[in-house]
Amino acid sequence: MTDTARYTRSDFQTDQEVRWCPGCGDYTILAAVQSFLATLDVDREKHVFVSGIGCSSRFPYYMNTYGLHTVHGRAPAIATGIATANPELTVWVITGDGDGLSIGGNHLIHALRRNVNLNIIMFNNQIYGLTKGQYSPTSEVGKRTKTSPMGSIDRPFNPVSLALGSEASFVARTIDMDRNHTIEMLDAMFKHEGAGLLEIYQNCNVFNDKAFLDLTDKNSRDSNRIWIRDGEPITFGADNEYGVVVDGEGARVVEVAKAGHRNIHVHDAGAPNPAIAFALSRLSYGPYGPTPLGIFRNVDVPSYGHEMENQIAEAQAAKGPGEMAKLIRSRGTWIVD
Amino acid sequence: MTDTARYTRSDFQTDQEVRWCPGCGDYTILAAVQSFLATLDVDREKHVFVSGIGCSSRFPYYMNTYGLHTVHGRAPAIATGIATANPELTVWVITGDGDGLSIGGNHLIHALRRNVNLNIIMFNNQIYGLTKGQYSPTSEVGKRTKTSPMGSIDRPFNPVSLALGSEASFVARTIDMDRNHTIEMLDAMFKHEGAGLLEIYQNCNVFNDKAFLDLTDKNSRDSNRIWIRDGEPITFGADNEYGVVVDGEGARVVEVAKAGHRNIHVHDAGAPNPAIAFALSRLSYGPYGPTPLGIFRNVDVPSYGHEMENQIAEAQAAKGPGEMAKLIRSRGTWIVD
Amino acid sequence: MSDETLTDERPVPEQIDDVVIRFAGDSGDGMQLAGTQFTASSAMFGNDLATLPNFPAEIRAPQGTIGGVSSFQVHIADWDILTPGDSPDCLVAMNPAALKANLSDLVKGGLLIVNTDAFDERNLAKAGYDTNPLDNDALDAYQVLGAPMEMLTKEAVKDSGVKGRATLRSKNFFALGLMSWIYTRPIEPVLDWVDKKFGTDTPVGKANVMALKAGYNYGITTEAFHHTYTIQPAPLPAGEYTNVVGNTATAWGLIAGAEQAKLPLFIGSYPITPATTILEELARNKNFGVKSFQAEDEIAGIGTALGAAFAGRLAITTTSGPGLALKSETLSLAMIMELPMVVVDVQRGGPSTGLPTKVEQSDLLFAMYGRHGESPLPIISTSTPSDAFEVAFEAVRIAVTYMTPVILMTDGYIATSSEPWRLPDVSALPDISRPFASIQDGEEFLPYVRDPETLARPWAIPGQAGMEHRLGGLEKDATTGNVSYDPDNHESMLHTRARKIEALGKSLPEVEIFGEGSDLVVLGWGSTYGAIRTAVTRVQKTGRKVAHVHLRYINPLPSNLGAVLSSFDNVLVPEINLGQLSRIVRAEYLIDTHSFNRVLGQPMRAREIETKIYELLDQEVSS
Amino acid sequence: MSDETLTDERPVPEQIDDVVIRFAGDSGDGMQLAGTQFTASSAMFGNDLATLPNFPAEIRAPQGTIGGVSSFQVHIADWDILTPGDSPDCLVAMNPAALKANLSDLVKGGLLIVNTDAFDERNLAKAGYDTNPLDNDALDAYQVLGAPMEMLTKEAVKDSGVKGRATLRSKNFFALGLMSWIYTRPIEPVLDWVDKKFGTDTPVGKANVMALKAGYNYGITTEAFHHTYTIQPAPLPAGEYTNVVGNTATAWGLIAGAEQAKLPLFIGSYPITPATTILEELARNKNFGVKSFQAEDEIAGIGTALGAAFAGRLAITTTSGPGLALKSETLSLAMIMELPMVVVDVQRGGPSTGLPTKVEQSDLLFAMYGRHGESPLPIISTSTPSDAFEVAFEAVRIAVTYMTPVILMTDGYIATSSEPWRLPDVSALPDISRPFASIQDGEEFLPYVRDPETLARPWAIPGQAGMEHRLGGLEKDATTGNVSYDPDNHESMLHTRARKIEALGKSLPEVEIFGEGSDLVVLGWGSTYGAIRTAVTRVQKTGRKVAHVHLRYINPLPSNLGAVLSSFDNVLVPEINLGQLSRIVRAEYLIDTHSFNRVLGQPMRAREIETKIYELLDQEVSS
Ligand SMILES: Cc1ncc(C[n+]2csc(CCOP(=O)(O)OP(=O)(O)O)c2C)c(N)n1
Ligand SMILES: Cc1ncc(C[n+]2csc(CCOP(=O)(O)OP(=O)(O)O)c2C)c(N)n1
Ligand code: SF4
Ligand code: SF4
Ligand SMILES: [Mg+2]
Ligand SMILES: [Mg+2]
What we know:
Distance between the termini of chain A: 69 Å
Distance between the termini of chain C: 70 Å
Helix content of chain C: 25-40%
Strand order of the largest sheet of chain C: 11-10-12-13-15-14-20
Radius of gyration of chain C: 27 Å
Oligomer: heterotetramer
CATH class of the largest domain in chain C: Alpha Beta
Shape of chain C: globular
Bound molecules: thiamine diphosphate, iron/sulfur cluster, magnesium ion
Structural class of chain C: alpha/beta
CATH class of the domain at 9-211 and 302-306 in chain A: Alpha Beta
Strand content of chain C: 15-25%
Number of helices of chain A: 12
Order of helices and strands of chain A: HEEHEHHEHEHEHHEEEEHHEHHE
Helix content of chain A: 25-40%
Number of strands of chain A: 12
CATH superfamily of the domain at 9-211 and 302-306 in chain A: Thiamin diphosphate (ThDP)-binding fold, Pyr/PP domains
Shape of chain A: globular
């Protein structure tokens, strides 16, 4: 972030009316993203926002950048096309828990494993908002919705675990209410080369209000937000009285006093092996009870877009730039006179 | 397995000519599955084999059971329909690394998270066989194929990691050449309730011969096959001179003599937390060097098919069986005379 | 407030035959509810009716703006009506945006009821009004009646227990009360509903009741509202009626079909507007043994349905255009596997995401040809909300009898609108079951040997011993069903699959002609039924000869259709698309149809069809 | 073995005009290679030619069985031929299964060359022969020439360094050598190829050369083979030629299009037979700046292409039927976003997985109507392997000029067969580039304001300052492209998108009529070109009047097509489907076409069309 910012937030606002329900968590995320982009020294026209379908996926209409509001679930694939066609661009994917994990799950995991140069923001409200309240792949077991009137029997995904199982090189989690942390995560993802996934717990006050209460309620949040920070021991609670240890059974929450401070796990987001990041992702099975927030993994891997350009450069160096006249003769010719 | 078997292997063979290339690993897997089924006390007509498209996916034609050879990538979804429609059936999914992880990745991860009562066998030959040799989502970086003449730049999936990231309750791996181990894995998966994934390294001798040489070659296999067995310390090598330890950095291979036997990790496939299973899956990034084989995870979770039946029973208990005459009157009626 | 206040001190109301009323307000104003309740009272009162909800694609578009306006139109009458009406006779406008968005539809001289409290500067600006239309001559062409509904509602509910801004939520009940007064509707059905939904003891329940009565009383006490109206009950055929919404009728028809086919119902679907409520209604009825599966996407929706069909269940999948696109590949598989399945396409505005909450008939050619290779399927369509019950039942019958997927076409208008439905005697529904395959001991099971009449192949399901068999997407041998690359077998299988559709055609009823003469026939399908029938009837009343033919079956077309159409000089085909049925009819019968296409995201209007009919008739005369 | 042995001691060969030869053997026998090399020599020799490979759907079906037979047919001639021939004049059968599978096609009296070594009991049984056809009168109708090819090959290559069973691998080269002798083909081109591929010093290279020469010499030394044939070079127009396979020509046409459109090419595709080799050919040419992306599925294939199009690249996606089904939804999005893209559909046998390695023309109606909503797209088709270059180039031109996805239809026959192609002067290819959008300072960028002639909207790409804009699948305002729910705007946009196709139509060439008269015109599209033209020419030679019209453009149809077709009494439409173009033509022009449909997974045969033409002409006469 530079201090002589070229842009202000309003440079990233469009003239389109924002059409979310009053009180929706999407508003705060929009504001955070706009504010964040204004701090960057990246030409506005180099940003591209690509979304699927859902409440969250209307996002690009509100960003005064290039943008595509595409079809349900396909944003990671379409964005992959943009990002590999032109790796000079900064490509953002906006998706929801339904868009990104239900219909779009496959494109998401493939974009992650390929390490395509994308910044993927997943608005996880644990519900289908736009279609008016059906359970999603992150809804908890037992959730009653119009399509699960007796309670959902689907075991949910943990998006962070899924991403790590998909070889993601950057995975983080934040919550809509915490604007500063959201911006911190956006910044880290932006700086990371290749594919990043940022899961944002986002409140849908119409169809799934208070889903994240454990993490947002004044009384419970301090003891439930496990901040994970690279290079720091993982402690939390109002007085950092809780901590996380990692051993041969995985990661678990302990009282620091009992476990001893030197046994508290020091987080290493850059560890080449994703095993511990995965273990941390299992501290909670959703936004219930102590739940880690922050960057789980952040490792350097060359991005797909650049790898592709490298091969072209190599091919041109080896064979010379393509010549049509040569190509059509490459299978042998003969002359008829 | 009973000793007074009702069936012999030939009861599970069909009159269709087996159309794989001579020497293909698919033959040994077919034989193993047929032999295994013959040992079970399950009526032949209760088995259903469902596949997508690929060399491996021709499998159902050779099984004298009910079967579907469907469309590319969709077998887990179609099988989900069968298994939830009738949980009394034993439903097997046969898929390949292309079919199951490329086009079909989404259905696979959703079937796993839902814990649908399916036994999924993935033939991983790290190549597209049927379309004549393009790289697949499990092919190694740098692999040269017709669609990657300068080497693939796609980072591969580790199918076991992906399955664990998808909340799978049973995940195992074996290799086509080892018939006994294959049958042992099939048996464990069959006994497990809900979704199981068995990855089988399968040699495609035409388009990707010797991909698993580290694990099959006489000279290298002993030092590269890490057998993982529930309740046992993980040691391997001709003289069990190697072992695996798990600590705050993940799992790694050590010399038992140096690390000390009591530090060797004792495998717990039934651990509710998948973190250590995931750590084990990271011991290798493919069938190169020391690679774990066996059951990574095997936990009890109620199956989707039964959960669905339970809700129906509950609904009927609460509301009585459905009556059409009542249903059409449920929104209020009036009489016109 | 005592109940006496509700004693009718009503001046004799004017008796009218029918009225079209539109409730319009902000998405958050509860207009859908007010309209639905008004409809329910009218139904109970014995009127015939038809409704048309209309809402924005957003969950809640910005308050107070044109984009955020939601409306509900209802047509009530003392005669057998078929459409929600072309233009409202009465418009309730809860705010300036609602006025602006709907005024041009109101008939000149129509009744305009406005919530004057909402006409403040902020709201006027949001709606794009420079000056307040209530203050100038902008509304001179209408009878304008204003009421400060917010103030009155707040006042009325002050003892309910509801506090603050939330009190305003009941203003739709105020409007409903007032409208009930003006149109002499009973308010008891509404009171019953509130009781069931909230209980009359809860703050919300109390507030709604208080607001409703306040609105009604406001009519009584305010002279301005003393010109009231009444519409006599319609002479509907005797019977028991319910007011049914199209998607509900579809869901019920499918359940009835499953019952009569003696098969447990399995639905694999992915939510999509405007189809979702079919899935939701089926999910609610698990006590019928219904298994409802919310899939990860549409491909899995039809995939699970296909699996369930193989397992011997009645397989259903429901969707709208974009989802139908995703089902295409698996539908072709289901076709070649010859497994029964009903695929419901609730058409919406296209292409792409299009106008997702609006009506369109533009998936017809897609349903016909939307699969690679030669992949013919039966297509059946529903004309009205209640017709959906019968059509869904019929789709099940065809699927099971002919062992084929069937595409059932409905649309966003039928899906969400309602009409009175005379309840059928469900115990008299036909048995449409077809036994599973069976073989003698030692006999070889041949999964592709067909019934000579229907050409249906046998259905053997996992669990049945001795009939183990494999199905696949590769071309199959004509008897064993094994993979066959034989050229002649392939060609013959293509013809056989086509002939199965023809076999179905032979068993179907011929089309009926409504009307006579040979000048002009209007040919329609789907939700244009009411508009076409109304238009044709009106023209007929003038003594001109014009006929109406409406299709339920589109593939195959009814056997006498070609002859019927050829017996007319003109064939007019009104469609909410750019001429899709027209194209099919042209190719089939080489008849030079007149396409009439209005694609506005709205139901067809009878008046426009009427105009078009006259245009053609007059051309005919003058030429 | 010294080179002298190759000195021609040839008796004067019989001069023939053309010959159709089919090499047939087990999938593992290398028949595709033998055929390809025979073709290459003939091409170098100056003959005109056409080829037809044919292989099983399995990678390697069970050895020795009918299902495992692979064949390669080539037609060589001293005149301008158009098809690989209906029936071979000469059949090479490497084993009993190959004989059984192909014999019925061989013309009576034709030359039959068999590898006698393969006719042992095991192979005969696998092929389903009870007795050895070489030993009885089964082959009396043919000229049978046997050679113990395996024994001779083994013997010939014994010093090559290749050992054991592997020596047998060269038997295809033995057969090739023998055939080169019989048909007086030069073997030098084959020697060159072996050198390039294996090097003549490697064991495999040596073995192949040795086997080739041995086969040739066997012809010289064995009296039985002393009746040889020669076919003079064809009087092809002067120029430089290559023998091009359809999919390669398609790939090259796309590259040429990208070059002339001044856009880097991006292909996002998922492998599928018979389209894969286009992706593979493009992947090979990264030095042209081609970015080739092997996607996770077809949806991602077109998805990435759409993204690349938005980013300002020439976007390509290639597939076959099942994949086209999966692309439907995104294709509709690309259509409404009005982004340029070429979608190549290499049609194969359907429905479902169908006959994946065989030819069919059954995706035409799917290409036309295979999207939900009103979603019109240009459709263009290629008639021959070399035509594919031009058509692919033209598809790029249309996509970029009109800002639209274009569907390019080809098929499994064109994809895999080859013909001599006179190389175009690529430096003279037209510039088909269209500048990206630009605006004046302060001007507002309006992404949906159109070019008045083409109706193309401007193309502004990320990275261009001041033109930031958002595209989506919801209906869009006619100028700003912002979301619009306005009813009239929607209807008008539907018409505008339809008019864009019409605008394209106006710019396209009219169809040309080959032939004259008014009795009968044969209307075709795609790979039936050669068969139709051959049939029509043959009939014309008898003095009867019959014409041929072949379509390159199918949507929109050429502007004069209706008039042209109406000027004939009969319109015959031969198609490898159940009448799809026929249906389009009927709907469009109300012409009662005669469909002629053969759907055998094989190219149309000229002879069958010829028969059909006579049938119609004679009916005409007698009626
Ligand atoms: C192909 C297709 N299927 C289904 C839909 C309907 N649909 C639109 S958004 C949505 C789910 C949205 O959920 P999510 O991604 O969580 O977004 P949210 O609205 O909660 O932000 C669905 C099912 C569609 N538009 N297209
Ligand atoms: C929709 C669709 N896309 C593509 C194909 C082509 N295809 C068939 S099998 C296959 C890949 C098979 O790979 P894998 O699953 O690994 O199976 P294997 O042949 O290696 O056993 C592909 C791309 C197809 N049949 N259908
Ligand atoms: S429905 Fe939920 S997610 Fe959608 S805009 Fe409203 S509050 Fe936000
Ligand atoms: S191509 Fe490979 S995987 Fe397929 S049958 Fe042959 S050896 Fe097996
Ligand atoms: Mg959501
Ligand atoms: Mg494979």
